[in-house]
Design goal:
By secondary structure, the protein is an alpha+beta fold. The chain is about 55% helix and about 15% strand. The chain has a four-stranded antiparallel β-sheet with strand order 3-2-5-6. Strands 4-1-7 form a three-stranded mixed β-sheet. A two-stranded antiparallel ribbon has the order 8-9.
Length: about 350
């Protein structure tokens, strides 16, 4: 599969190009009509409180037409369904996309809803000791790959039971079921050492099957790339939140230090009253917290970018449909996240 942001398909001639363009426009119109019908039906079900049926309708509509309004309603549906992690991640996506499109009202709504959900998120921290990190070791939760840069981070998950699967070539797979902790709580998932598989003599037919199985389908590659990029956005968002906190703490440190000057001698700022000493101590505490938050946040943002940009991209046909030109992290007074620019 060829990687890249944009793929240009050569046309055999003007007549072929005209036909394909007309056919594509007709297909796009049909998709938008189907998306609108699914969206209206999803809204009707949500208004009746049937979120179990409403959310899949909105998901299907979003796949056909990735409109910001549909994504916002889907995030609300997830929230009312109790899927806090899915709702939080979707609200963050809406905030980033709305900022790009200049839709301030929707951005403010999405940021407010995401902030309200943050304290309710249940998180898992996947720990893999160095001694257990075998070559090509993979960790999956609910069949979704947990990339290595996110090991050791408290990642949000929806409430309920989740399946954990750990595999490595030549070793027996480890599988178990883990329960999501209570709202606002985190739990640690320790990955144990895997047991080696007993040696087997491969038969000619088994060797042929192994060769075929080693060639993944294009759809599987595309799904894996999409999943990895989502993890990259989530990890980067966590890092940006830490950077944001560091900036706030740094501001507090400056304010506390400035306030202490009124309680110290003008000719010798090191001689201060008890209140001045107290304010200096508070400023030092805020400064230390700011430094730690900025360093840790910067590292996590770098890990998120690494996960995002190393993900495989869809094949040529899919790359023509969705071309991403830039993914830029941002930190502001109201939100932190990724800005996605490109052709949709």
């Amino acid at each position: 599969m060829t990687n890249g942001f944009l793929r240009v398909l050569s046309m055999a001639g003007c007549m072929s190009a005209t036909y394909l363009a007309a056919h594509g426009a007709w297909a796009q119109t049909e998709e938008k009509a189907a998306a609108e019908a699914l969206f209206v039906r999803g809204r009707e079900l949500a208004d009746r409180g049937d979120y179990e049926a409403a959310c899949p309708k909105l998901e299907a509509s979003l796949k056909l037409d990735p409109a910001i309004g549909t994504r916002l309603h889907l995030a609300d549906c997830y929230d009312r369904q109790g899927r806090t992690a899915s709702a939080w991640a979707t609200f963050m996506e809406v905030a980033s996309l709305a900022r790009i499109e200049g839709q301030t009202a929707r951005e403010e709504i999405a940021v407010a809803r995401a902030r309200a959900l943050e304290l309710r998120l249940s998180r898992f921290e996947v720990r893999v000791p160095e001694a257990n990190r075998l070559p090509e070791l993979t960790v999956q939760i609910d069949d979704v790959l947990v990339p290595q840069p996110s090991w050791g981070l408290a990642l949000p998950f929806d409430p309920g039971k989740h399946s954990l699967r750990v595999t490595a070539p030549g070793y027996k797979a480890y599988e178990t079921v883990i329960d999501t902790p209570a709202e606002g709580q985190s739990s640690v998932v320790d990955v144990p050492a895997l047991w080696p598989e007993p040696p087997e003599a491969p038969s000619p037919s088994a060797a042929g099957r192994a060769k075929r199985d080693s060639q993944p389908a294009q759809g599987e590659d595309a799904d894996a790339g999409t999943t990895q990029r989502i993890w990259g956005i989530v990890i980067g968002g966590l890092g940006l939140a830490s950077v944001s906190a560091g900036a706030v703490l740094g501001t507090q440190a400056v304010l506390k230090n400035d306030a202490s000057m009124a309680h110290c001698k003008p000719d010798d700022p090191t001689l201060c009253s008890p209140r001045g000493v107290e304010l200096r101590d508070e400023a030092f505490t805020y400064a230390t917290g700011s430094t730690v938050s900025l360093i840790v946040g910067g590292g996590v943002v770098a890990a998120g970018l690494a996960v995002f940009f190393t993900a495989p991209w869809p094949p040529e046909a899919e790359a023509q449909k969705v071309g991403v030109r830039a993914v830029v992290p941002f930190v502001g007074p109201d939100a932190a996240g990724f800005s996605l620019g490109g052709r949709w």
